[in-house]
Amino acid sequence: MKTFRKVSLIACFIILFLVVTMIILYHSLISPVSKSNEEKEVVIASGTSSMEIGKILKENNLIKNKDFFVFYLKLNKVNDLKAGKYKLKENMSLKEIVKVIRDGNILNEEEITITFKEGINYREIAKVIENNTNNKEEDVLNQVKDTKYLDSLIEDYWFITDDIKNKDIYYPLEGYLFPDTYKYKNKDVTVSEIFKKMLDQMEIVLEPYKELIERDKKNVHELLTLASIAEKEVSLAKDRSKVVSVFLNRIDKGISLGSDITARYGIKLDDSRPMTTAEYNDSNPYNTRRTDFIGLPAGPIATISKDSLEAAIKPDKTNYLYFISNIQTKETFFFEKSSEFEAKKKELASVNGGY
Question: Which of 21, 75, 233, 251 has the most other CB atoms within 10 Å of its CB?
Fold first, then answer.
């Protein structure tokens, strides 16, 4: 009886050892081959068997064992791998590799990548789209003239309201399109498809602040306007919260913002030349440089970064009413008194070249 118990105990230990060993081996075989992030192009022809696919993956050092690959497919009842050209990496697990091939995420050689930089305006966005797709600049400009299209966006996105339909606004989606790098299927992508990705990303960026915006009854259109001006006014993100505070303080005191970059936007001047006196005094819905223009311009003037958005939503509390930057060093100086501001402006005159 004791001998039987001893044999049974040994058998249990052996079975347990084998089970643990199998589990360890299984997890080892489904884990990535290496930490390499290098992409490898793999072609799976139509009619290729599971064993042949396993061989192709093993030859490319994407899996550890081709026989286990076949076993894994049978264990997980995977019998619908798709033919095509794929980009895979050694740091992908077996599960990830199988998912890519099963989903048919085929490498699209016509796929294009478009980068929209922070601080560019709608006209510049139109040029970027024309340079990277089969759309013309005019197509992009006309997109926001379609009232039905704008109404559909107001219905689809919580942060887009009737504010964008203000007749004084040059381009209704100015400031609402989030700047980033996006991938599209090919050069035939439509303007609305391009904008959908940009608006979806803006929603993702704004979402963490939604409760705060709604609780404090903040106007998203005004927040984006403030953020866009701060984006263009100073180069360093750390200064933008103070810049927004300056604008809010001036509005509270009934003083015009005095922003040169809104004056530039107002006359649709995209180059960096100095403006004339007549241009600075031009009467338009954006020119806050005019002393009789109190409050914010009709709408945003450029794409914004997360930093600028944060600055507009959570501005610093200061008593500053003026600021000026050193164009060369990017340093920004803030003042409460006009005399201090004028002194610094005079000091930086030769450095800033008249700005």
Answer: 233
